[in-house]
Amino acid sequence: MSGSVVDNTVSSGNxxxxxxTDISGQILDIxxxxxxxxxxxxxxxxxxxxLNASMQTSSASMINQYKFEEEEEDADTKDIFxxxxxxESHVTAIETYITYRVETKTTRSEFDSSEFEVRRRYQDxxxxxxxxxxxHPTLIVHPLPEKFVMKGMxxxxxxDFIETRRSALHKFLNKIAxxxxxxxxxxxxxxxxxxxxxxxxxxxxxxxxxxxxGETVKAVAAAVRGVRGRPQEFTDMQEYAEAFSQKISSIxxxxxxxxxxxxxxxxxxxxxxxxxxxxxxxxxxxAEPLKNVAGCVDKCCKETEEQVKxxxxxxxxxxxxxxxxxxxxxxxLRRRDNIQADFEVxxxxxxxxxxxxxxxxxxxxxxxxxxxxANNALKSDWTRWQKGMRTDLRxxxxxxxxxxxxxxxxxxxxxxxxxxxxxxxxxxxGNVDFS
Amino acid sequence: xxxxxxEDIAVIGNTDLTPSESENNVKNAMVEKGTSLLKKxxxxxxxxxxxxxxxxxxMQETYTVYLIETxxxxxxxxxxxxxxxxxxxxxSEFELLRNYLLVTYPFLxxxxxxxxxxxxxxxxxxxxxxxxxxxxxxRVGLENFLLRVASHPDLSSDKIFYxxxxxENGWKETVFETGFQAKADSRLKALNATFRVKNPDKRFAExxxxxxxxxxxxxxxxxxxxxAADRLYGVYKVHGNYGRVFSExxxxxKEMGDGxxxxxxxxxxxxxxxxxxLEEEEHYADQLKEYLFYADALRAVCRKHELTQxxxxxxxxxxxxKKQQREELATGTxxxxxxxxxxxxxxxxxxxxxxxxxxxxxxxxxxxxEELVKERNAECxxxxxxxxxxxxxxxxxxxxxxxxxxISYAIMQISMCKKGIQxxxxxxxxxxKM
Lengths: 435, 434
Fold this sequence. Notes:
The complex is a heterodimer of chains A (435) and B (434). By secondary structure, chain A is mainly alpha-helical. Chain A folds into two domains: 76-206, 2-Layer Sandwich (PX Domain), CATH 3.30.1520.10; 227-422, Substrate Binding Domain Of Dnak, Chain:A, Domain 2, CATH 1.20.1270. Chain A is built from eleven helices and four strands. Chain A has helices at residues 3-11, 21-24, 59-65, 122-135, 159-178, 186-193, 196-204, 209-225, 232-280, 287-352, 357-429; strands at residues 80-91, 96-106, 115-121, 432-433. Chain A has a three-stranded antiparallel β-sheet with strand order 1-2-3. The longest helix of chain A has 73 residues, at 357-429. Chain B is mainly alpha-helical. Chain B contains twelve helices and four strands; from the N terminus they run βααββαβααααααααα. In chain B, helix 4 (91-104) packs across helix 8 (180-192) and helix 10 runs antiparallel to helix 12. The longest helix of chain B has 81 residues, at 352-432. Classes of the chains: A mainly alpha (435), B mainly alpha (434). Chains A and B meet through helix 9, helix 10, helix 11 and strand 4 of A and strand 1, helix 9 and helix 12 of B. Chain B: Residues 44-172 form the PX domain. Chain B: InterPro entries: AH/BAR_dom_sf (IPR027267), PX_dom (IPR001683), PX_dom_sf (IPR036871), PX_SNX4 (IPR034902), SNX4 (IPR034783), SNX4_BAR (IPR037430).
């Protein structure tokens, strides 16, 4: 993990934020109209491609690992179920933080038992994500909800914020559990099963700080040089990622604007009902229909409130996740580029230098393997990701459309019952000739 | 009163009734009332046109004129379709007509004109009097006004009204010849004056209070409704952005492209649908506005009652004081303070001849006073009688019309919901194909 991440989590004890410089450059373009931006960009991982011990296996077996596009994930064969719930607040001398209950039910043989229950805090999720990204720099890890709020005065411990975060953490773990590679990660298993002491000591393992820093420096150098011979397919992916990022961000903004306008509409509508009710007090014959209309308007208000809530709780979080996914795509492509850049640098070095040729050739071979492996992994995961994106967004929009239909159906029923009441009224008074 | 049984034509039996049909039912109800005027002729305000001309201070001005068409009823039913008689009038002439009616029939609740300037607008509506939508709504309102007058049992037989409909030239002069202008000025003064009435008719006091409340609550309703309409407009229009972005997004997707693209079209349709929805709601707002202005007319009648009552009380008071003066003079005692009394105390009593003269004058005044009180009393009673009849008529009309308006509002909401259901069902189908 890059040093900057560790620093951030410690300093996040107070909610008045010192924005780390590496994030500030990538703050989402928020125009004045936008209100609360709960999800801004989280770039916890540097673009360094740090070497992980688990990668030291033969290239052949590595490539085989990633031929998972043929596997269809069948819900019936799902053998691990993870839930995140039950947020609790913890107060220590230094800080206050929230932990979430993570419950796992599984039939997998590599797990010692079939049920586990642990408590994890946001830091732990962050750690897990970092580990997975380190181990598989060109695989697409589902995004985590943001550490803190960039704009607005929302407290970290506000109920809505906690619930939104919990829901996103739940999705995160489930995406990991569904992923053919990630779900068999040792770090993932430990995350789900280890007691807090065990987890802390496990966290301390892994490449040391300095070696990570060393890799980071090399990676920066490679990034600065840039990649020369990028294959077209990756350039295509790059273009797609850019375009997708723009579109999904726009949709996110549009949806937020809709929610805003709906809320303002609701505010005005809330005054209509009482006005009709007030009027009914001055009337005799009209009192009943006026009161009735007042009731109808109030009912429609309630329905509007529910509909807005649904948008907020269901569509918006999904859109936000995919805004972050877009950034993940770009990051993954960058990392792949860096590996290729590294390969190109080493290739050039081998061609020009005379000394140490054997050692350099060895290193070049390793990097070449890494590159091939990274490319294949990325291609497979890209396809997988697109399928997942399609499913998620289709389902989210579908649900929204369904919810909107239901909203209008309920309002329709309200007004039709009003008409009905007026009809029976009129019939009762013998005023109307329905022939 | 003519056939009240068929007054409400199957309004509620059919929920597919559009709001404009519901409005027509209100009109038909007026026509069915069968005043003698309406039995003879059909009245409509068919068109509006822009004109330019020189005004009173010789400056160029642009104004709108409205075409009033009248057609004999028999001809229409005979199957022939003769060209209707028509003439052009501008808004100020309608105002003149109404002012004349107000002054001539102070005991009647005179139908109001559509608003002079656009009020209770929300951002999309123009406050410009030349705006075609405003002109169109005004045309409808003017027609409504004419029909209201024509269906009123008393107003419909007014000659000036008839010539308004039929005599293009010289009508203005005819109106002024009635001399109503003088009465208009004093009426205005009286209505704005403050005076305390000791014994107003309770019913009128209640009506006045009701008029105040009605005006206040309808204003509030119109304001709130306009704001809500503004917001609703925003909600729908923002969905149009979905259309644009979905379309752009579909260009970079393979399998999702078609579903996205067609969903986007539905979002555009959704955004566009709000224009019609809100236009219909403006009709509803106009119906409310009519009664907002009616409230004013109602209050004017009540004020007029107060005025006549006040004048009666003043006359009675005057009579009483004169009688008292006579008594004092006759008995030589001064019970009431009067400057005369004080000065006579200071400067000595009058001569018997002077006193005799004074007494005689007082007697005459008292006689006249008694006549005046009788007159005023009769006036008051007459006013109360006629006004109350019309107020009752107005109440019935108001209850009927506003109920229709509420029903048409419900129908509008239903129509809006149905459109929403359709669009989102369509969108859902497209999304499921993503």
